[in-house]
């Protein structure tokens, strides 16, 4: 047996001296040099007692070394569990505990607040900083740059990514070697990636989009990356002339359009702009085409499935759609109540099936059963329709998930915090349209009688409990929340009522 994912993505590049990562400061790291670092990291993980199947929780800033941790985990058979750097210690504690992780890797600036988390869970904690320093990197420097890759087959887990519904705690989506590799192969072909490409990478790498889509496609095709620490308009404008492809969230494109330097002349060497992780407004699509002559390619995916659909590389890229299903992926629309297939053009629940679809939720067999049909289709919870030409249109979400700047925000998590504040009778959290972030979080609050609680009080209560990207852009006080005859809050009415509250 071999290592399914490593043998396809990494092993062919072990002797490849071509550039892999081009950094903001001008440094270049070749494929072969990068993989020597991964070998040292894999040796350190093994020497620290981690074995195939163990989980490594990683909350570090983006860097070549952070990316090498992912490769080292694949190589050593360890399940990679990346976390958003904005998560609070309380959130990290849950992920560490629920996953049964064997080690926590964090930025040096977080070690004091996360050491108690490691202590409570009786695991080792090490540091890896954005500049590549830290206790983990220091210890790995003395290890061999050769490593005997651990056998893993296509059904073995490669990663555990936590997601949520609108109720309950976060769920760990189990992604196998074959889930990741099948999607990388499909996307490489559909988007025509080759070793002549240079991907402008300004996405985070704790997320499916920036890690499993962007990085895996580059590894499989031999493309290099301009590897930026994050999105900064000046940096992106500087490196676009040296790039051929960019992947981004809609926020990236709206911010570029706000900059007069962004033009057709600047982008003349680019062959493809890809957007995902949140809906791209049709007006952004149109404005981008008028400014640059490029039609943004929008696609649709999620943590549990990687990518499901894509507008065509050759063919019409339709604004407001996410394109047809990818090769090998089946997409169907069913009635929300009866779960039976409905005619083309009608709106229903999107369900998907294919080698890209995850294995289920970590230690949640009942939840896994609930989210899959008997024939293996995964119930996405998204509402959509398929037109006569096979293009998928996302029209909403059955669940009340908010996607702000490409990041998921789950209303129930915020509502629990708000409702616990003295003076709050109840709350409802919704997403409203936002030109920059796609959607913004807004909290609708009902006070208790004689309450003096104000917006500042509530924002202070939220401040240390959740990540910054989840915090409301606005809090609105109302006398009561609209309800249906069953007593359920009608968030659709709230979204309509407060759609313009940020303008």
Describe this structure in words.
The structure is a single chain. The chain is of the alpha/beta class and 503 residues long. Helices cover 30% and strands 25% of the residues. A hairpin with a 3-residue loop joins strand 22 and strand 23 (438-447). The model has no long low-confidence stretch (mean pLDDT 93).
Biggest sheet record: 8 strands, mixed
| Side-by-side strand order of the widest sheet | 2-1-10-9-11-12-13-14
**Secondary structure category:** alpha/beta
How many strand segments? 24
Mean pLDDT: 93
Helix amount: 25-40%
Rg is: 23 Å
Label this structure with key terms.
4-stranded parallel beta sheet; 503 residues; 15 helices; alpha/beta; 8-stranded mixed beta sheet
């Amino acid at each position: 047996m071999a290592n399914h994912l490593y043998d396809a993505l990494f092993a062919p590049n072990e002797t490849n001296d071509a550039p892999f990562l081009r950094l903001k400061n001008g440094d270049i790291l070749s494929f072969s040099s990068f993989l020597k670092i991964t070998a040292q990291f894999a040796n350190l993980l093994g020497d620290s007692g981690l074995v195939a199947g163990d989980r490594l929780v990683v909350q570090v800033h983006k860097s070549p070394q952070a990316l090498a941790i992912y490769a080292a985990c694949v190589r050593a058979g360890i399940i990679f569990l990346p976390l958003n750097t904005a998560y609070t210690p309380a959130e990290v504690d849950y992920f560490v505990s629920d996953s049964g992780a064997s080690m926590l890797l964090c930025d040096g600036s977080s070690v004091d607040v996360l050491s108690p988390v490691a202590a409570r869970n009786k695991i080792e904690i090490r540091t890896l900083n954005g500049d590549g320093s830290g206790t983990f990197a220091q210890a790995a420097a003395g290890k061999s740059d050769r490593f005997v890759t651990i056998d893993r087959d296509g059904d073995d887990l490669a990663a555990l990514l936590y997601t949520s519904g609108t109720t309950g705690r976060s769920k760990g989506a189990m992604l196998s070697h074959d889930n990741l590799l099948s999607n990388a192969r499909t996307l490489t072909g559909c988007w025509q990636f080759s070793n002549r490409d240079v991907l402008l990478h300004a996405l985070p790498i704790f997320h499916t989009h920036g890690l499993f889509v962007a990085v895996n496609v580059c590894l499989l095709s031999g493309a290099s990356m301009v590897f930026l620490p994050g999105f900064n308009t000046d940096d992106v404008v500087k490196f676009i002339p040296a790039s051929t492809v960019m992947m981004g969230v809609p926020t990236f494109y709206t911010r570029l359009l706000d900059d007069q330097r962004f033009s057709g002349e600047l982008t003349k060497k680019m062959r493809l702009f890809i957007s995902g992780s949140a809906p791209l407004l049709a007006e952004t699509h149109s404005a981008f085409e008028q400014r640059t002559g490029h039609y943004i390619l929008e696609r649709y995916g999620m943590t549990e499935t990687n990518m499901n659909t894509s507008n065509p590389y050759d063919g019409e890229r339709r604004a407001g759609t996410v394109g047809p299903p990818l090769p090998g992926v089946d997409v169907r629309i069913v009635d929300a109540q009866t779960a039976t297939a409905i005619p083309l053009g009608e709106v229903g629940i999107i369900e998907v099936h294919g080698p890209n679809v995850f294995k289920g939720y970590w230690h949640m067999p009942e939840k896994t059963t609930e989210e899959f049909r008997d024939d293996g289709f995964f119930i996405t919870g998204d509402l959509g329709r398929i037109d006569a030409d096979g293009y998928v249109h996302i029209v909403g979400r059955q669940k009340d998930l908010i996607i702000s700047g490409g990041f998921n925000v789950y209303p129930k998590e915020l509502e629990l915090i708000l409702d616990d504040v003295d003076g709050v009778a109840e709350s409802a959290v919704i997403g409203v349209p936002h030109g920059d972030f796609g959607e913004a979080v807004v909290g609708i609050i009902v006070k208790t009688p004689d309450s003096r609680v104000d917006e500042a009080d509530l924002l202070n209560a939220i401040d240390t409990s959740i990540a910054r990207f989840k915090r409301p852009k606005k809090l609105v006080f109302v006398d009561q929340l609209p309800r249906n005859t069953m007593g359920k809050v009608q968030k659709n009415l709230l979204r309509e009522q407060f759609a313009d509250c940020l303008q």
